[in-house]
C-alpha cells in the first residue's frame, strides 16, 4: 500500500516577461485563465487538494505581495504557506528553500511550476514513483508542434502535410514527485536541472512518468497560450 504525498511546493516566482502586459502588475501564476474567473494558481491549488494534498508551500518572487494578498483573501481548499527569497537562489536553491517549510520532511512531496495548467492523477504518478524506487520522478508531456509538418518519401517527394503534429520528443511537464532524500541533494544556490537531475539520471534514480493519453496539459508562457487555454476550456 502506497502512502501518497499530502504536501507540495508550487514554484511561483518567475518574471513572466513573455506574458506581458498581463504580468506588468501581477506574477505569472496570478494571470487569469480567460472565462474561469480564477488565476492559474487557483486551478493548481484546487487540483492538488482534489489529489489529497493538505499543505502547500508557494515560493514567491516577482510581485510577491499581489499573490500573497490573493491567497489571504481567497477561500482555499488546503493550508498554504508562502516563502519569498530575499535574494535569487536559482531554481534548485529556491526549491530547497521552499521545501524547508514543508510540514513533514520525512515524507515524499509533489512540486509543480506555477505556470502549468493540467489535470491528471497525481496518485498514479506517486505510485509509479514508488514502484521504481525513484528519488525523483518527472511528469513527461508530448506537446504539439506549433507549425504544420511536412512528410517526405526517401526520394524527396512531399507525401503529406500534418497540422500541429505531436512532438516526437517527450518534455519535462513541470510536475514532480520527490522522495524525502531529494531535498538534501538540492543545491543551496543554482539550478538542480543542471546538477541534481543529471546525477540522479546517471545513477538510474530519476524516473519519467508519461502523462496518460488524453490528459490535459498546457504551460502558460505567452498570451497565445492563454487564448488557446480558453478555447480548450470551451471545447471540454
From TrEMBL:
This is Nucleotidyltransferase family protein. PANTHER family: SUGAR-1-PHOSPHATE GUANYL TRANSFERASE. It comes from the Bacteria. Transmembrane segments: none annotated. Residues 8-233 form the Nucleotidyl transferase domain.
